[in-house]
Amino acid sequence: MDNQTITISIAGLSTLISSVYPIYKSLSDKEQRLVRLEQELKSLNDKHVSIDQEIRSMDTKQDKLVSEISDIKVLLGRIEERLVNLQQKKNI
Q: CB within 8 A of 9, min separation 6: which ones?
């Protein structure tokens, strides 16, 4: 190889690098954006799981409250029965 061939090869290499680098840079930027989007997706998924767990917990609490209200209604019904019985005994 003579100096002219080396100069042409370096010039060609420089041209190749200058034409490939923007593509590489664009891909690198897109890869970084993809990584950020994956992190955001994971964060959203974690929030979804947390919200889902909270909803299940609230459903459990609601079921418990419904059960307690039902028990209270039964007790109120018994109290009402006793009051009616007492009222009837008083009237006799």
A: 1
pTM for the model stands at: 0.56
- How far is it, in rounded angstroms, from Cα 74 to Cα 72? 5
Structure tokens at 63: 């079921």
Give the separation between CA 86 and CA 12, rounded to whole angstroms. 110
Query: Which of 13-17, 18-22, 79-83 shows the lowest per-residue confidence on average (mean pLDDT)?
Result: 13-17
End-to-end CA distance of the chain: 130
Helix/strand/coil for 92: coil
Radius of gyration from C-alpha coordinates of the chain:
39
d(CA 2, CA 92): 132
